[in-house]
Amino acid sequence: MIRDIQFDDAGRLRHFLTLEGLAPALLYRIMDTAESFVSVTDRQIKKVPLLRGKTIVNLFFENSTRTRTTFELAAKRLSADVLSINIATSATSKGEGLLDTIWNLQAMHVDMFVVRHAHSGAAHFIAQHVEPHVSVINAGDGRHAHPTQAMLDMFTIRRIKGDFTPLSVAIVGDILHSRVARSEIHALKILGVSDIRVIAPPTLLPGGIEQSGLRVFHDLDAGLRDVDVVIMLRLQRERMSGTFLPSKQEYYLRFGLTEARLRQARPDAIVMHPGPINRGVEIDSRVADGVQSVILQQVGYGIAIRMAILSMAMHSGDAAAAAREAS
Amino acid sequence: MIRDIQFDDAGRLRHFLTLEGLAPALLYRIMDTAESFVSVTDRQIKKVPLLRGKTIVNLFFENSTRTRTTFELAAKRLSADVLSINIATSATSKGEGLLDTIWNLQAMHVDMFVVRHAHSGAAHFIAQHVEPHVSVINAGDGRHAHPTQAMLDMFTIRRIKGDFTPLSVAIVGDILHSRVARSEIHALKILGVSDIRVIAPPTLLPGGIEQSGLRVFHDLDAGLRDVDVVIMLRLQRERMSGTFLPSKQEYYLRFGLTEARLRQARPDAIVMHPGPINRGVEIDSRVADGVQSVILQQVGYGIAIRMAILSMAMHSGDAAAAAREAS
Amino acid sequence: MIRDIQFDDAGRLRHFLTLEGLAPALLYRIMDTAESFVSVTDRQIKKVPLLRGKTIVNLFFENSTRTRTTFELAAKRLSADVLSINIATSATSKGEGLLDTIWNLQAMHVDMFVVRHAHSGAAHFIAQHVEPHVSVINAGDGRHAHPTQAMLDMFTIRRIKGDFTPLSVAIVGDILHSRVARSEIHALKILGVSDIRVIAPPTLLPGGIEQSGLRVFHDLDAGLRDVDVVIMLRLQRERMSGTFLPSKQEYYLRFGLTEARLRQARPDAIVMHPGPINRGVEIDSRVADGVQSVILQQVGYGIAIRMAILSMAMHSGDAAAAAREAS
Fold first, then answer.
1. What fold, for C147-298?
2. With an 8 Å Cβ cutoff, are A83 and C73 in contact?
3. Does the model's pTM come out above 0.90?
């Protein structure tokens, strides 16, 4: 069996690239570590010295203020030095290749790359080429994976619903193009969720999904019936008209989550969304801002989950214990 | 009477949005606190740990390197973590609304927003929608207010002139479009300045200003006669020609501050300007760089005033006492 | 004799603008100090508190992610606060002059400017106008000088080759337009290198270079014969065609460093390049990534050299001693 590139020789987490193939115990350990950081963010002084003197490079080949910001805050709250590099506007304008950029930054003795890239596999490619002491975190690669987003979603579900196994979870929207959906499906399977559903028009579903063990729905009302968790996906602007969909109005009529639609789910169902939301496209404002929405909790938990993953990849002692102590 | 949104339930300063309606005692307390920070910036180690572990977001919807820089330095010298977000180039490109942006950042457990926005009332609007533990500082909103600039101007005047009540202060230039002028006039009135003058062509004065208690002049020589303080305003490029003014040459001839003109003021009069200056438009270089100019002192005091306001809004114990101690 | 602006009244290094006229002892002292910082960057916690509470402004009028990043990392590892200002996109858009920008930042009590500018002499001009407590570091000015790059190159040579005096060093490429080459030639002369060669087509050499004491070659094979060190220069895109060169293919054929060409040099010769490299233009990938290449070591040493220069210009006690202690 090929050893997973995500672990070092001692079997410890080193890179965090995809959830595919990870053991349930690791996912639980990440969530347990994040649990200890939730209290850090509620403190007056929101810092722990776990990564003091470490240099983390935010390497964003695709612009995302929101994701970059959460990683930057997570790193700063661990007392790391953070370097944010937007590659779209820098080195490549001098025609430098991706690996040359990585090798140069690595030669500056940085400890970690947080990589966002429009191409699937970019973070994995970088992880294959860095030195043994350097870690790579995938902050979203093409349509492939967005594992920290999926982990914060799982963490949100666990904090509210407790046990994963009896849950019904529906993912609604553009499954075909969504790295978030791909990573969430891996996570839900690993954690033993018994009923995983995808709800989308046929044009926004990958071919062969019927053979995946998921329950596939093309009708929102039918798909939402008695679910515990509804995960709405963002409809990207470029899909709002043309070959995939007739129009965004049409999409909203058929797949937009309204209060009426949400009544199909269990009364205590929660509504999630990776953000940023398109109000009136995939979700009605009354649902997004309603009592069942946990969208903003997700954002806060995103900091705690990223603090957990950054500190675990750096093997910074007992991260959970350190987090409990004052900085 | 409606309670001022700028104070918390215990009556302590929470937001800093406008000077309108504030008590003289608060303005003096801000200046007293700033006084203690002036010595910090002169030290070898220019840091105090007052805001350690706090996260301050510079949210600039309008580009201003200078103002952003002073807030960033003020925050760093208080040991806060600073996140600078230029919204013009980020979230809104994904079509996210202002409140969604604020709510998301707030969910990341940030403590303060420093807001610059082209629309009057933007900072106030944000302050109405944030959670109780979050503070909002107005770093300039449309034509409405720029209260930290006005406070640093008052602080500069107090450091040099001492008592406010006997002073004659003239504000010269585009009063109509200037948030700086609006905030300065509030501050000067609150502090009991006996003679407040505005000097401008009629097209650059708001309607009804004659009823405001200010002395209005359309002639620079007449307006400057025997004043103690001259505050020049920046002439925005877009006013330099067209409906408001014949040309910038014509403006300089009538309202540009030259050494000859300045002789109308008292011999110990000081010349102020919020910067950046337009040399040869509203002010002659010999005046800007001359012995009566305190323009660069204003910049330095701007850091101290912003340190005072940031730490007071965060209620960080006895800010003044802490500033006196070494970090 | 005119006192060198680079030193203060006590004869200590204050600005670092050019290597021209510096004594060998100073260059050795910089390298000795850098030596102590090499171990810092290998530590778990890569920080020393030498510049805590100091504010360093990266003032880049020319975009260079790589150079800005190395200065930013050097400053952060010395625990300074760093402000990065890209002037192309900020103050000058409001029409503010260079000196007004400098004076304003200086009024904010910053301690050091690291300046990159397209005009030769810009850093020197700024150094002439700042207050006595402020230092200026030249991070590249026009075609004039890039002294920190030259120093990291010397440091790399010393770490590998030891003594400078017996060495043969060849600089290959666009000598005419290269500030790196100019500074390297000064450094090599100061350090007593016995055989300094430049290899370039006549169109890429300055007039009168034959009278400079350098050995001039227009043929790569002849020039490389028995050298100890090969320094390749980056061929700027704008030279790749037109008046200076027929085409980049032609340039590669005549001046590109291939494995075959490198065999002219001594077997233990090292290959250097300031980066970013143009693979297949001035250097073949097999050489750039080969065993004789020290290009990535240069990058790492660049941090140590910049830490040395920043701390020496700030006169931060015994920088070398402090670096040996844990932070």
1. Rossmann fold (3.40.50)
2. yes
3. yes
